[in-house]
Design a protein that fits this description.
The structure is a homodimer of 468-residue chains.
Chain A: H1 8-21, H2 28-43, H3 48-59, H4 67-83, E1 86-94, E2 98-99, E3 103-109, E4 113-115, E5 117-119, E6 131-138, H5 141-145, E7 156-159, H6 170-180, H7 182-188, E8 193-197, E9 223-226, H8 228-237, E10 245-250, E11 253-254, E12 259-267, E13 272-282, H9 292-310, E14 318-325, H10 333-339, H11 343-346, E15 349-354, E16 362-366, H12 375-384, E17 390-391, E18 412-417, H13 422-425, H14 438-457
Parallel strand pairs in A: 6-7, 7-8, 8-9, 13-14, 13-15, 15-18, 16-17
Antiparallel strand pairs in A: 1-12, 2-11, 3-4, 3-10, 5-9, 6-10, 12-14, 16-18
Chain lengths: 468, 468
């Protein structure tokens, strides 16, 4: 029985309630009908947009470890309790407390020009008055890496390699090392500061921030991102090897003793509450925008999916656990979440999936191992086909920063959202609510609720399909 | 003889050279052939893009009265001389020398949030530490004007009326008063500062600047533009009359004794050099971007059109005068240009037209008075039809800030460019070279060169058609 066009309540009237209330083997027809009804309920209007609107409006930006991030966690606890979730609680953990300061850059020669720059997370600071130094400009990251140790002494290193637009975000994946490791690599070669062409597919003057990293024992140098037009301006000005000289002010600080908060809530399973289907997004954001697509949307989509399941007349067999992580952007939340859960506890997690790629529809779902070929895979494919979305024939390759630390013991799935335009605004001041379309976001909720419900109310065992 | 598909040189080989070299009545067939050849030459690649690239790259932003604006004028003199123009010279005139300072805004309550703001040109300053005050928010400009004098005492007034997208820019025209007069109107009502939702059709966090004005004797209050997403955030936060409180830092200054430079150059006419066809754009820009679409493009398009005419084997009958104005953005260049030219001198100007609406193609040409119905109108329509573009049946309504002071004595024409997306980036940091497509800009050059050449080499008399 496929009840594609009926709302959830209507589906229940057709007999689902009686069938589900008994502890017995899942009825595939009933699972399919319920998944379709939940999907259609999401498409009619889910709680995702109101959640996202209120989070980004009332709190705004939510940098991990900041007062605003703590306010967001308190806000989420209140909201989730009001929505009826069970076991709502906060898990706190230490973070570096990196805080943005002043940021300015001006070209001194060959002509005086302001440049738009933003500091990278975890980067060091210039003196308050800034630094003035010659620029060593490289058109590719590989060109910079090819320089010998010490050869860039006293230079502000600039790398202007452009990012490629790709639906699945692989253009970002291919180049993120330029931001994440570039400052440390430049420092090894003598650089006193490092600037990267912003990892963006737009032509905006707004630079995009993001984390950079330094090995233990290496003092962070100042590091930032230049907007795409500014990087192209430097490319033009340096034609023929013309020397550039720059003044740079970046004064971030670290706040000792800072912590961040992950918020956890459950829909407790009716038969096997110890078996957990984990879904979630992250509550923290970068500090330039209000974190609408990254990742208020992911938090909102998974909260809405869980809420639709919570509102069923009967809980699913297994527990649906919602985690709104508190420090994804600096990758402290996932390790903290995994660290407080023993391997034995994690072995009861059926599957984990993270929503952190904006507010656009899901177009494909990659399942753990060979699970696409299970009855679960077939039911999910049937449920999401009308969106349209497919179950990927290939297995999931990882699941995101916040759940990958679980990956040793927990099968990971990946619900793929369309990221064609995601990196136009990701990590920039442009990441604001107005970029989100409620109806398109509800298409993502529809896929998430089908995925989550079927995992929680069926007896699918992803481990059996080589997921670990 | 219509030689649409021949390059200019080819057209000359067909007999134009011999016919033109003699002082005799213009041959309509020859005019038409030359106009078509010039148009096609423009479409094959004009000097517009190299001019714009070098101006925006070597100089960058060019705020009227700044060192950069003077460097731009010197750069243009050198460039125009190298291109072979005659009578290249600078005309200097006084300007207020308004210079941007610090700009920051934060909402204090109901929650701490950064806002993206930029100061309006000619606006006053806060103390260095800024001001903190309650917000009086109005959703329309009319709502603010409806407040009694004195009723907004001590408030930071915010007006969040959105701008309408329109191809011909009329959405901007309809709302510009909100920026240009709003600060003074708010001050009359007691406001200590004024912020306007940025006049923009985009959803970027980048605010757009632009001039504001205060009547003589009124001390300028601080005034700025909030980005579109920030204005919408305030709209949401103030629902139900919830009070807002803001901290605002805007510290612009005025530079006594500042001057700006208009650059003038000629293609001297071969028969009636005292009769002038005036075209041009403005060299100055706002200081946030590099002034690519506003108005490096207009300067580049008209320079390219004049250069194509300059490169003809024989000059046109009349003089083509190119003016690259030095302070359009604060409306000081047009009055200065007119003031140094007597009414008698202006009476020899055949027509004036200003290019100040970006780098997109021209889609229509509005001529002075009833000139669309002259043989000139018919020839121009024929020349630009393939672009495609039309001659408007309605007369030109004004011509732009820089030529309107001439309008008492000089017929004005208006070449209409597609402005559908112009106000997405106009006056913002996003106004950079990468937003310009060279081939599309050359379509504008093609219309401009046809318009200009036909006016300069024919005996059209716009005055006879009720243009004044």
């Amino acid at each position: 029985m496929i009840v594609k066009t009926f709302a959830f309540a209507a589906a229940l009237l057709l007999g689902a309630a009686v069938a589900q209330a008994q502890a017995q083997a899942p009825d595939p027809m009933q699972l399919q009908a319920n998944a379709a009804a939940l999907r259609d309920q999401a498409l009619k209007g889910s709680p995702a947009y109101p959640f996202l609107r209120d989070l980004t409006t009332e709190i705004g930006e939510r940098l991990a470890g900041s007062d605003a991030e703590h306010r967001a966690a308190q806000w989420a606890v209140t909201r989730l309790k009001a929505m009826g979730f069970q076991n709502v609680h906060i898990e706190s953990f230490p973070v570096p407390g990196w805080t943005r300061g002043e940021e300015r850059a001006e070209l001194i020669s060959p002509s005086a020009q302001k440049l738009m720059v933003t500091s990278l997370g975890n980067a060091g600071a210039t003196p308050p008055q800034g630094i003035e130094a010659p620029v060593a400009l490289f058109h590719t990251y590989a060109d910079m890496l090819a320089q010998p140790v010490g050869s860039l002494a006293g230079k502000i290193v600039v790398v202007t390699q452009p990012m490629v637009r790709a639906q699945d975000g692989s253009g970002y994946g291919a180049l993120a090392v330029m931001r994440f490791m570039g400052a440390a690599e430049a420092e090894k070669r003598g650089a006193i500061a490092y600037l990267v062409r912003t990892l963006s597919t737009s032509d905006s003057r707004l630079p995009h921030t993001g984390a950079t990293d330094f090995p233990p024992g290496m003092a962070p140098i100042p590091a930032g991102a230049l907007s795409v037009p500014d990087a192209e301006q430097l490319d033009r000005l340096s034609v023929g090897g013309r020397p550039l000289r720059m003044h740079l002010v970046l004064t971030p600080t670290f706040k000792p003793g800072a912590t961040a908060d992950t918020v956890v809530a459950d829909v407790v399973g009716r038969e096997r509450p110890d078996q957990v289907v984990l879904i979630g997004g992250h509550l923290d954001s970068w500090d330039l925008g209000t974190g609408a697509i990254d990742d208020g949307a992911g938090a909102a989509i998974t909260t809405a999916a869980a809420k639709l399941i919570l509102d069923m007349p009967h809980a699913p067999r297994r527990t649906v656990r919602l985690a709104l992580f508190g420090a994804e952007e600096i990758n402290f939340a996932g390790p903290a979440f995994a660290a407080v859960r023993s391997a034995a506890e994690q072995s009861h997690y059926v599957v984990a999936a993270e929503c952190d790629f904006g507010a656009e529809p899901v177009y494909g779902v990659a399942l753990p191992g060979a699970s696409a070929k299970t009855p679960y895979g077939a039911m999910l494919a049937e449920a999401i086909a009308p969106l349209p979305a497919y179950v990927d024939r290939a297995p999931a390759r990882g699941g995101g920063e916040d759940i990958e630390p679980l990956g040793t013991h927990v099968p990971l799935a990946s619900l793929q959202q369309d990221g064609t335009h995601y990196f136009d605004i990701h990590h920039s001041a442009d990441d604001t609510l107005d970029k989100v379309d409620a109806q398109r976001m509800d298409k993502a909720v529809a896929a998430w609720v089908a995925f989550t419900y079927l995992a929680a109310d069926s007896d699918v065992d992803f481990r059996a399909k080589g997921a670990l």
